[in-house]
């Protein structure tokens, strides 16, 4: 075991001034560690969406009626607030877990050798999106679950998922200039797919804002439109996304594209099929809470799948992990 050096006063001052640089000077993470840290941040960004949906679907949106404290007199939930207070406060606590995951991704990216500033910036971008969404979440509570603020809260969470997905992808690449793997026409088709998916997600938030799950048992304002009509528009957009995905898969096969774009397009198509089944079942069964929650999870997975298709259209030299193992000479000796 290596001896841990004693911290001097100069070290303490250096750590206080720039803790990330202090850690980076003393620790070099394995490339897989950086990849796992970025993946952990992505997973937590999806988890916070699902748990946020659980808050709304259980009618716990005002379980803690104020913010940043839970009540006017208590920072945490109280026994008198019951299970709704526990659910709402628990979701707030998960924000700290998300912050820890994002912080771990930032530290790992900053400590990697050589230092890749682009990765660190993606980590910090996630941090500021999380902070902004935390403030927006407080505003949602303070305005009594106004549906427009709830929709903005979900859209900002989708932005967080997008940045986390890009960072996870970039941890497995170098900073070399990207080389396109497909032609301009295919790239344009994928951008149409991304735009249609964004519109699909946005309309989905309108369905939520007009639908029956207001987020609390009290009187909560809803978007003043017929939610079933918007749900039908949402279904039409979903079919457009499915059609574009199938067309993309067909075109990629026709031009003999590399396997990575093909496989990711296939994965996206399967996710869309599952999401479509859940969507139609929940519509015809009058929106049971469990299926709505699964649909929210599916929405995040669809968004990640679309982004992964977009990112697969170019390649950079991959970062090869220097894995420990027997040398070639040792292997020959054993043979």
Distance between the termini: 32 Å
How many helices in DSSP terms?
A: 11
* Strand composition percent: under 5%
Largest sheet properties: 2 strands, antiparallel
What class, by secondary structure content?
mainly alpha
Oligomer state equals: single chain
For the biggest β-sheet, the strand order reads 1-2
Which word captures the global form? flat
Model regions low in confidence, pLDDT < 50 over at least 5 residues: 321-335
Radius of gyration: 23 Å
Strand element count:
2
What does this structure look like?
- The protein has 335 residues and is an all-alpha fold.
- Helix content is 70%, strand content 1%.
- It has eleven helices and two strands; from the N terminus they run ααααααβααααβα.
- The chain has helices at residues 9-17, 19-26, 31-57, 82-111, 117-142, 147-170, 184-210, 227-254, 259-284, 289-311, 328-334, and strands at 179-180, 314-315.
- Strands 1-2 form a two-stranded antiparallel sheet.
- Helix 4 runs antiparallel to helix 5.
- The model is unreliable at 321-335 (pLDDT under 50).
